Amino acid sequence: MAPSTPYTVTDMPSSSPSPAHAEARYHVGRELLAQPARDAHVVQLYEDESFLFDVLEQYLAGGLRAGEPSVIIASEAHRQALRQRLAAAGVDVEAACATGQLTLLDARQTLSRFMVDGRPDWERFKDVVGGVLERSRAAGNGARVRAYGEMVDLLWQDGLPDAAAELEELWNDLARLHAFSLLCTYALGTFGEAGHERPFRDVCRAHTHVIPAESYSQLEDPDCRLREVTLLQQRAQALENEIERRRKVEQELLQALRTRDEFLCAAGHELKTPLTALQLQLQSLPAVALPTAGDGGKRLRERLDKAIRHTERLTTLVEGLVDVSRVSGGALRLERAEVDLARLVRDSVARAMDEATRSECQVRVVADGPVRGSWDRQRLSQVLHHLLTNAFKYGRGKPVDVHVEAAAGLARLVVKDQGIGIATEHHERIFDRFERAASSNHFGGLGLGLWMARSIIESHGGSIRVGSEPECGAVFVVELPYHPD
Fold first, then answer.
1. Which of 116, 201, 286, 480 has its CA 20 to 30 A from that of 386?
2. What does each C-alpha distance from 283 to 264, 274, 294, 297, 348 come to in angstroms?
3. What is the residue-level pLDDT of the chain in tens, covering all 485 positions?
């Protein structure tokens, strides 16, 4: 005979049924939840929270009516909703809490009491949760406890499926020490990724009973349920076929990308040879043109200057394409040596002065140094070249500031312009390959410079970021690991 309860539990009149009992909708696990076995560990999947509360009301109110104390470990919102549903089902919630027949705990706080380094600790779990169950059972005069918990679902939401599976097993271990039935619930959408298949199977194996979500469990006609199972099997098969097809397409695309990168690398090397020869020839011609007098000689020198600049631009583009193929193929190697970053910056700025003059940009350098580290000199020069080129391009006619400084464990390089600026939503995107914040109709380039700069900096173990707003210029900050003597 069930022990008597010191608070009132009444059945609601048929004229004013609670939401869950308004001709309660059929679901597969109804009898199981109404009278769970002594050591039942049930998982109920759900799609909509209204169905979840229907299930919880039936499970918890049914237990309290039978004289079985209940422990609820849930979020604040769910605890408040359950208070209302239990009261609507005829449970004197305040009296039940006062006598210990009903225990309400916060899931996040309870979880924090036994988690160690992202894993549930058995001894702490046994003390914390086992202690709650023991006190609840004592309040119920030794009757079995009905427990409901959302802690495993929280671990899933936190991206810790392995820890959630471990916690489910700890509940099973605790059932050998205490008399209770346990109901766990998971939102079906939690398992929406293909990679969730294994942990989802682990969840199912950890429970004595698995009850499907309402789209299946509320089908009353057995024939309808069989049809639904058949449809689900067909969808699963179709999904597996689609996954396999996409896997093959992905492999083909990866191979196409590898082929493209190999082509770019080969084409780049082939183009560099004639370009280098052409540059050398063009660079020797101004000396020949100098003796030429008059306007004809002047026009010749101007055209030679333009031709030299165009070949320099072509060389830069070809080298960029070769670097793309190297980075994509994982062939970007660093030639580390001791480098004074301050000296490197001054030398790089000096080489860029012709471009700065053409862009009408004054470059101000603060690099007192020395700031020495183990870096790849050529690659860091390449990074600075990309940052200066951007500053000259987007801040034409305005000053550019370059700073080098040493901080705790970091060497910092800052390039600041006063150009058109970059909207906040583009700050991350501009570091992607072939991306740009401004239209290519107004500014040239392939959109590879910042992507290449980030690849080089990250290969050094550093980082690069931008701070900017439209019409307020841009500040690029490079930070490199730095260990001064």
1. 286
2. 27, 14, 21, 16, 21
3. 334 444 444 443 333 334 434 344 555 667 788 788 777 899 889 988 888 998 899 899 999 999 999 999 999 999 999 999 999 999 999 999 999 999 999 999 999 999 999 999 999 999 999 999 999 999 999 999 999 999 998 998 888 988 998 999 999 999 999 999 999 988 888 887 777 888 888 888 889 888 888 887 777 777 777 787 788 788 778 888 888 899 999 988 888 777 777 676 677 767 777 777 777 777 777 766 666 556 666 777 777 777 877 777 677 667 766 666 666 666 577 889 999 999 999 999 998 998 899 899 999 999 887 899 999 998 899 899 989 999 999 999 999 999 999 887 899 999 999 999 998 888 988 888 777 666 554 555 566 788 889 989 999 999 999 999 888 999 999 999 987 76
Both structure tokens of 281: 């020839």
Task: Find the angle CA(370)-CA(376)-CA(379) to the nearest 5 degrees.
Answer: 110
Q: 417 with 474: CB under 8 angstroms?
A: yes
For the record, the structure tokens of 327 come out as 């980075």
